[in-house]
User: Which sequence fits this backbone?
């Protein structure tokens, strides 16, 4: 009897695997969704009745039952490298030239295999004896995170390889992406629920994959496309990449779509132009093409230089630009009262995201770019960078276009607006009287790098301020579950969670606490420097201008803000209350040792794979480096990730400043 059941189970699993493969990989289903669901239910029922016969790679076992508490590290068997980037035709010539030089007499005109460069996140999948045993992120290239439970939920990833023509150890590498239509749907859902929107499909894919609860990942229609190999043992690969892709597809993988064999500069350029033209229509984001020497033998002959192969290159698309109408200007009031003009645009798709706002920074920029309400404007967006209004199409300015004026009173609290002659920024003078500033101050106080109060978002700070439940951050620590329950869209579970999160935030560090106070121009790095230098809040409160100027990176202006902040009686009271309500930290040891990157200065541009730009900045600063926004003679190097800003690269070239890639960044961070 149980033999019968066992063979029935095997047959069902096999059928479901086949249908899955036809549906997700070949895109050629032969049964309806309902028929598939029926088979699936049949299998579920049978497994439920015979739990002893359930196997981990059954189609029913994609979603795990328990959430993880953290991701564990996974060391790659072969490092996950990156690619050199090129941006223009002459650079393509240079790349091809280096290839033929590198090959010497071996080959004069090799085939190149071109694929789109998918804008997602790199993943390594390990199959041992045909079974998926590990899915890991790239991390720093050497060590990533084990995301196997999440990877298993991705439907077009086989849990076991098809057929039997595979090596004992097979690692494949590829990109996890979220299709554009799913990205739009996901953001629409998030909007309805009042949650934070994802900036682009790549962030959404990354966010979906880095979920401790695989059920969340399972609910996101992620896809995985293979573009290459990790460790393969024994080495049995076909000598051509194009042929490898066929083989991979037979094993059950979706391979990077749109691959083509081409020859010479003309062939590569033609592929690039065609992909660039197709880009908008594709249902996944791409930010360039990848050109690889097709032959494995020739690849091996060319080898690697530092962290990138010599046989491949990423030929990146230029930042996307589109035109749209500027419908209105809204003035937002920030934490320090700074008024920022935000352009409300007729929504357009650009750089893989639907954009309806762009910040204009300040009045000077509006004047410089001669922006009017009603203008048609060019909008540019590269990678994760905030969209930018590049310029106005003056020829299309309508007769009723309106000039933009700095408001004379705060649009939120009606206080006076102050703009000093030599400052670009205009400020609301309302201070914490201004609800907008109070809300921002609260959010900042609770944010991840400050007091890290989990789950505390805009939704709550707005209501707490609007209902006068909270006037200063200290009031947060007085809130009871009942207070929270009086807010809209609040339930008992969430209310309790927020109370707990606030209680948990009491244990912090001096640096976080200082940063959380929101002193003007005291960012994370400055807060850390202050904490290290002075060691206690009392010492910082008592510090004179001269004493502050001794601290690394603190100049007269910041020192002035710090002294001014602590002189304010109101601020002293808030600090005293916070401490009275239990906020505490271990006393930091003064950092005496010299830091590795002391005196060096970097400019970061583009997006990085192992770090967000912010994280990279903090990591560099923690080693004593300066990170600035523009390239100057004093810059040590410009560190370029994916889709770097053209201006920064040009400036670096003009000033002969070295340009580093992400691998070089990872290298210095390791020191
Ligand atoms: S080949 C040595 N092919 O781009 C690395 N990479 O900048 C060989 N990527 O880390 C990579 N689409 O995550 C290759 N069709 C494609 C790709 C692709 C996206 C990503 C990949 C890699 C990064 C390198």
Assistant:
């Amino acid at each position: 009897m149980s033999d019968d059941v066992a063979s029935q189970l095997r047959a069902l699993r096999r059928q479901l695997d086949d249908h899955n493969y036809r549906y997700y990989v070949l895109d050629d289903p032969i049964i309806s969704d309902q028929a598939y669901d029926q088979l699936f239910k049949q299998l579920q029922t049978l497994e439920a009745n015979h739990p002893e016969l359930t196997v981990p790679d059954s189609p029913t076992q994609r979603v795990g039952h328990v959430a993880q508490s953290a991701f564990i590290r996974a060391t790659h068997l072969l490092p996950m490298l990156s690619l050199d980037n090129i941006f223009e035709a002459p650079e393509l010539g240079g790349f091809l030239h280096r290839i033929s030089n590198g090959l010497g007499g071996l080959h004069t005109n090799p085939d190149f295999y071109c694929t789109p460069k998918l804008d997602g996140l790199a993943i390594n999948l390990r199959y041992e004896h045909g079974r998926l045993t590990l899915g890991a992120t790239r991390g720093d290239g050497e060590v990533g995170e084990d995301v196997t439970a999440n990877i298993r939920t991705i439907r077009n990833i086989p849990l076991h390889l098809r057929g039997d023509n595979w090596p004992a150890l097979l690692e494949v590498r590829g990109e996890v992406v979220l299709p554009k239509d799913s990205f739009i749907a996901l953001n629409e859902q998030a909007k309805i629920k009042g949650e934070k929107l994802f900036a682009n499909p790549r962030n959404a894919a990354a966010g979906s994959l880095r979920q401790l609860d695989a059920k969340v990942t399972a609910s996101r229609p992620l896809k995985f496309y293979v573009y290459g190999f990790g460790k393969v043992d024994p080495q049995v690969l076909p000598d051509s990449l194009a042929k490898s892709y066929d083989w991979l597809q037979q094993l059950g993988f979706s391979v990077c779509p749109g691959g083509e064999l081409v020859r010479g500069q003309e062939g590569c350029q033609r592929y690039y132009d065609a992909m660039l033209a197709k880009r908008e229509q594709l249902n996944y984001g791409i930010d360039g093409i990848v050109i690889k020497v097709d032959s494995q033998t020739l690849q091996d002959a060319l080898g690697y230089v530092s962290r990138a192969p010599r046989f491949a290159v990423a030929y990146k698309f230029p930042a996307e630009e589109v035109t749209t109408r500027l419908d209105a200007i809204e003035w937002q009031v920030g934490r320090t009262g700074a008024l920022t003009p935000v352009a409300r645009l007729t929504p357009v798709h650009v750089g893989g995201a639907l954009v309806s706002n762009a910040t204009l920074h300040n009045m000077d920029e509006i004047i410089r770019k001669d922006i009017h309400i009603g203008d048609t404007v060019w909008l540019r967006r590269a990678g994760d960078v905030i969209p930018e209004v590049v310029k106005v199409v003056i020829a299309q300015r309508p007769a009723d276009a309106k000039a933009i004026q700095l408001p004379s009173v705060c649009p939120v609290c009606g206080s006076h607006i102050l703009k000093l002659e030599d400052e670009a920024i205009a400020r609301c003078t309302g201070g914490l009287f201004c609800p907008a500033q109070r809300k921002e101050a609260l959010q900042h106080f609770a944010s991840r790098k400050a007091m890290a109060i989990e789950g505390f978002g805009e939704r709550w700070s707005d209501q707490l301020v609007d209902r006068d439940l909270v006037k200063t951050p200290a009031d947060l620590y007085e809130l009871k579950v009942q207070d929270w329950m009086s807010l809209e869209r609040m339930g008992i579970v969430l209310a309790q969670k927020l109370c707990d999160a606030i209680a948990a935030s009491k244990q912090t560090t001096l640096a976080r606490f200082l940063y959380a106070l929101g002193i003007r121009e005291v960012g994370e790095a400055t807060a850390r420097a202050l904490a290290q230098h002075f060691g206690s809040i009392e010492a910082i409160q008592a510090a004179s201008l001269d004493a502050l100027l001794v601290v690394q990176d603190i100049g007269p202006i910041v020192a002035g803000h710090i002294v001014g902040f602590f002189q304010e009686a109101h601020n002293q009271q808030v600090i005293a209350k916070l401490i009275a309500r239990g906020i505490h930290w271990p006393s930091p040891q003064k950092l005496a040792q010299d830091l590795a990157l002391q005196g060096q200065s970097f400019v970061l541009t583009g997006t990085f794979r192992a770090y967000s730009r912010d994280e990279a900045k903090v990591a560099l600063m923690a080693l004593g480096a300066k990170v600035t926004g523009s390239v100057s003679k004093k810059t040590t190097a410009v560190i370029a990730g994916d889709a770097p800003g053209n201006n920064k690269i040009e400036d670096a070239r003009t000033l002969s400043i070295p340009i580093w890639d992400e691998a070089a960044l990872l290298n210095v961070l390791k020191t």
The first strand starts at residue 73 and ends at 75.
